Amino acid sequence: MAILSSTAEFEAYDSIVSWTTESVDIVTQESVLGGYPGNKFLPKRELTREEAAQLIYNLIQSEQN
């Protein structure tokens, strides 16, 4: 699978743990996760219920496509 997106595009790139970058690349490429406004990815921030529901919905949609 070619990675079209990159964790390096996020403003908080340094806060993404190195062993997770490939997974973050895949979920952003598949539009499961997109980060926060201002091109921010906040890996240590807790998800709200709304964000968790959206993540699950996006994951299901990516599996159906």
**Which structural class fits the helix and strand makeup?**
mainly alpha
Helix content: 25-40%
> How many beta-strand runs?
0
Q: In total, how many domains does the architecture comprise?
A: 1
Please give the count of helices.
Answer: 2
Shape: globular
Radius of gyration: 12 Å
Largest sheet: none
Series of secondary-structure elements, N-terminal to C-terminal = HH
Oligomer type: single chain
Distance between the termini: 15 Å
- Average pLDDT metric: 77
What percent of residues are in strands? under 5%
**Unreliable residue stretches:** 1-5
Any key phrases for this structure?
mainly alpha; 65 residues; disordered N terminus; 2 helices
